[in-house]
Specification:
heterodimer, A: mainly beta, Immunoglobulin-like, 4-stranded antiparallel sheet, 10% helix, B: mainly beta, 5-stranded mixed sheet, 10 strands, elongated
Chain lengths: 147, 142
């Protein structure tokens, strides 16, 4: 994962573009093997501020206890499975657009995460994970002494 | 006669709105659905993540099933949006229905962002066969 920094006048660099590029790379690396879901499921939004990030993932039809969230350094991985709806005997399928099966998606944040302080809630099929920045990762101001 | 629910592509002049929706244009999404048919009912399951029950309208009538829902997103003030794949907007999808749906028994259930609509079929009496008799009287000649 390369971060390019330019020494010179501060150029406006869209955090969106960098993030999207890094996320696409991450999705390729961690692509789940399952056919039913397209790579990059679930759809996520990522909101950040200095000390905290929120990841909101769309997981309709998945039950809360089938969701597995794990945190390592600066990444959070959302894993789980959705069962296909049971088909009664002799049923005819007219449309089948909703995926089922296992999914796994990893998001990398711009900072290391404090695992003990991560909170997650699940409502209306949307999972919202709040991830505070690790204490050890917060920048410290260094005093400059005159000699 | 087809018994398959046919999809009606809703071509709106303007973004779909309910009478009291704001006039600003909003994204309109077509929710993914699964449709299955048994002898007793059609079942339509639609993925509607992020939509609470009160923001959903399901209408059955005029041979159509209309599904409409409005989704908002929490503002997350103070945060920068680093990456966005889903957004607020509206879900809309319309299907034509076969004739044998029992409109009064249609049921819609919402669970974990999935709306399941069951449309029971009426078991109307089989059409009555009419026997054809030969007409014994023949027209008088001449």
């Amino acid at each position: 994962m390369m971060h390019t920094r330019q020494w010179g006048p501060a150029l406006p660099r869209s955090p969106w573009r960098d993030f999207a590029r890094m996320q696409a790379e991450m999705d390729r690396l961690f692509q789940s093997v399952n056919d039913s879901y397209a790579p990059g499921f679930p759809a996520v939004n990522v909101y950040t501020k200095d000390d905290e990030a929120i990841v909101a993932a769309e997981l309709p039809g998945v039950s809360a206890d089938a969701i597995d969230i794990s945190v390592l350094d600066d990444t959070v991985t959302i894993k789980g499975a959705r069962a296909a709806d049971a088909l009664p005997e002799g049923a005819r399928v007219h449309r089948h657009e909703r995926g089922s099966g296992e999914f796994s998606r990893t998001v990398r944040l711009p900072f290391r995460i404090e695992p003990g302080a991560v909170d997650a809630k699940f409502e209306n099929g949307v999972l919202e994970i709040t991830l505070p920045r690790a204490e050890a990762d917060r920048p410290r101001r260094i005093a400059v002494h005159r000699t | 006669m087809s018994t398959t629910p046919q999809e009606v592509v809703a071509r709106d002049r303007a973004p779909a709105t309910t009478p009291d929706a704001p006039t600003a244009p909003r994204k309109v999404y077509r929710p993914r659905v699964d449709i299955t048919e048994t002898a007793d009912a059609f079942v339509v399951a639609a993925d509607l993540p992020g939509v609470p029950m009160e923001a959903i309208e399901v209408t059955v009538g005029n041979g159509r099933l209309e599904l409409y829902a409005s989704r908002t997103q929490a503002p997350h003030e103070g945060y920068e949006v680093a990456y966005r794949q889903h957004d607020a907007g509206e879900y809309r999808r319309v299907f034509t229905l076969p004739d044998d749906i029992d409109r009064d028994q249609v049921r819609a259930d919402l669970r974990n962002g999935v709306l399941t609509i069951s449309l029971p079929r009426t078991h109307a009496a089989e059409p009555r066969k009419i026997e054809v008799h030969a007409n014994a009287a023949t027209p008088a000649a001449g």
